[in-house]
Design goal:
alpha/beta; 8 strands; six-stranded mixed sheet; two-stranded antiparallel sheet; 6 helices; 169 residues
């Protein structure tokens, strides 16, 4: 079972329930699940592999959330970015050893760009051996070069298996 199957099950069970509001439009869990399936198909078409380090530049849209979940479901290590970090973007891509960049345009359409980087850091090897997705987050870097933190996304998501009060974003 994928690390995200429990989320898929919950999304399906609450298909008609509002999950997010973006640009004054309500999106249900069922719509998010449909977007997630669409991203899975697109990642397959683009030959995205579990060992890929992928930057995802997106705002907090339903499509961006679905892309993040689909990349994790694929087993990728995701480096989430927003337009607000544009000045440090090149530095972040280099530090994280990003090989594929996916950027969502202003109209929320994806643009895929292959980069000429190979991931060589030993911490990635550990995630790949365990077949776990990763999540790279950055510190503010106020004292010099930015610092990256690599999280095991499988372990981060695991805490959400326990049902709690439903929330909407």
């Amino acid at each position: 079972m994928s690390a995200l199957q429990f989320l898929r099950d919950r999304f399906a069970a609450a298909a008609d329930t509002p999950a997010m509001v973006w640009r004054d439009e309500v999106y249900t869990y069922g719509q998010l699940l449909g977007m997630l399936d669409g991203w899975r198909a697109r990642l397959a078409t683009e030959h995205v592999r579990a060992t890929d380090i992928v930057s995802l530049t997106a705002e907090f849209s339903p499509n961006g959330a679905a892309a993040l979940l689909a990349l994790c479901e694929q087993g990728c290590t995701v480096v989430p970015l927003t337009a607000s970090v544009s000045q440090k973007r090149a530095e972040f891509l280099e530090i994280a050893e990003v090989g594929l960049d996916i950027a969502l345009t202003a109209d929320d359409a994806p643009v895929f760009t292959l980069l000429s980087r190979q991931a060589t850091h030993a911490l990635y090897d550990r995630l790949w051996r365990e077949r776990h997705p990763g999540l790279v987050l950055f510190s503010s870097g106020s004292t010099g070069r930015s610092k990256a933190v690599l999280h095991d996304a499988h372990r981060l998501l695991d805490k959400f298996r326990t049902r709690r009060q439903a929330k909407r974003t």
